[in-house]
Design a protein that fits this description.
heterodimer; A: globular; B: about 75% helix
């Protein structure tokens, strides 16, 4: 337990020192602006397109620094020591995913009211959308660890991660987009919210075990 | 005369598999040609035209079997991957690998024939109907599975990785499928473009359709056996080349 807290602290400090937050938020803002400007040129800039852009941008930016999550530890042998240590590899994967979520998705989610307010979604609705995202985006970070584990030790694995992992985001993106659209129409479907959060929780519960099994393949 | 083995696990030896596959393949090939030509000729030339859809209904004899196979080949890959992970059954892994491309082609042809059928009936080649969307999802997972084999060299490690990818992929493909269906049946009214064809199909179409499905399944099995055979021989050649080069 003590080791887990140390690891959490170390990973957070490491991510902060690497300016990960700055990079992910700037990537998100640039993506939103570019797609927004593109849609503006063809005269199509409604709330609907904005919601779609936000969800797609958040799923793309949660793949950003995923390649380095295990790769650096794998290259310099830290991962070997993690596997040999008393702390289970699942715990380490859990901590790494949480840190990944805190450093990439959380700053983006806090930006969303700032971005969506001037573009036509009321502040109340955008805060509700933020809550939906807070509860559902951890699953994106957890799922993408599977991709990081699959392409461990593979050169140019970034493209492969997108090919493997982006389709698996679909259930969460579908539910998230639809729920956000309903929120902007001031309708609330409790069942859909519950299913989305259940999906998120299931992903959080299961993926560390799958990822650890995949990582162990590289050590046999 | 084929000598029957004690159990299926002995086919894990590629030589046992090859000796039996060589005897079975011509038999399967002839059976496929007979069934497919019977089903297609009966279906395309000797069935009446639908009173609403005209002659375009006849594409059902290609569309339904390919769609049926596209879904079931993924299940077959999943089963084969699980067998590889549990029993280290090499032929099973090669079967999963070989089936993926056939599955991709079946998915593409189902989508393509559906588009050709959709244009005169619905007025559009593609609509974001839940069933069409779930085929798009299936296509993505086939592409993901194929790309891991295309980019990495064949080894047991990649076999494990691809099997896990297949398992994870099938979980999320199922989840996405139900996510897509949830909205169209939960909140919105049912889609006006329904693809439930087999519910109210007449016997005139039913029997040739069944023969076509059997024919396409046989076609898949024949192609799969040929591809597995090729793959095993390719691996043998690679091993020999590596041994020669030291």
């Amino acid at each position: 337990m003590k080791l887990s807290f140390h690891l959490l602290k170390y990973e957070l400090l490491f991510a902060l020192a690497n300016k990960g937050i700055l990079l992910s938020t700037s990537f998100f803002i640039i993506l939103i602006l570019i797609v927004g400007i593109g849609f503006g040129q063809i005269g199509e800039s409604s709330e609907k397109t904005l919601l779609a852009i936000i969800w797609i941008a958040i799923s793309l930016s949660s793949l950003l620094s995923i390649k380095t999550m295990f790769q650096e530890d794998f290259d310099d042998g830290t991962l070997d020591l993690y596997i040999l240590s008393n702390t289970s590899i699942e715990t380490i994967i859990f901590i790494k995913s949480i840190v990944h979520w805190i450093t990439t998705n959380l700053p983006i989610i806090t930006l969303i009211p700032l971005i969506s307010f001037p573009l036509g979604i009321t502040i109340y609705h955008s805060i509700l959308i933020c809550f939906v995202m807070l509860l559902s985006t951890p699953a994106l970070s957890f799922i993408s660890t599977i991709g990081a584990a699959l392409t461990l030790g593979e050169k140019g694995g970034n493209l492969l991660i997108s090919i493997f992992i982006l389709p698996t985001f679909l259930p969460i993106i579908i539910f998230g987009m639809k729920i956000s659209l309903l929120i902007t129409n001031s309708t609330y479907d409790i069942m859909a919210h519950l299913i989305l959060f259940a999906l998120s929780l299931i992903c959080i519960a299961i993926t560390p075990f799958i990822t650890s099994l995949i990582i162990k393949i590289h050590y046999t | 005369m084929i000598k029957f083995r004690k159990n299926i696990w002995e086919f894990a030896n590629p030589n046992n598999f090859l000796s039996i596959a060589n005897k079975i393949i011509p038999f399967f090939l002839i059976l496929t040609i007979i069934t497919l030509s019977l089903g297609l000729v009966w279906g395309l030339f000797f069935t009446p035209e639908d009173y609403r859809q005209g002659s375009s209904v006849k594409i059902i004899f290609v569309h339904v079997p390919t769609a049926f196979l596209a879904i079931n080949i993924y299940f077959m890959m999943l089963l084969a991957s699980i067998i590889w992970l549990i029993r280290r059954h090499h032929v099973s892994l090669i079967a999963a690998k070989s089936a993926a491309l056939i599955g991709l082609i079946m998915t593409l042809s189902a989508v393509l024939t559906g588009a050709i059928w959709g244009k005169p009936i619905w007025g559009t080649y593609w609509a974001w109907d839940p069933r069409l969307t779930s085929f798009a999802i299936l296509l993505m997972f086939y592409l993901g599975y194929l790309s891991i084999w295309q980019t990495m060299k064949f080894s047991d490690k990649i076999g494990d990785l691809s099997s896990w990818l297949c398992i994870v992929g099938s979980i999320f493909a199922l989840l996405s499928r139900y996510a897509v269906f949830f909205w169209d049946q939960g909140l919105h009214q049912g889609p006006s473009l329904s693809l439930d064809k087999e519910e109210n199909i007449d016997n005139v179409f039913y029997f040739p359709l069944i023969i076509c499905i059997i024919g396409f399944v046989l076609l898949f099995l024949t192609l799969l056996l040929i591809r597995i055979k090729t793959e095993i021989q390719k691996r043998k050649i690679n091993i020999l080349l590596n041994a020669r080069d030291g």
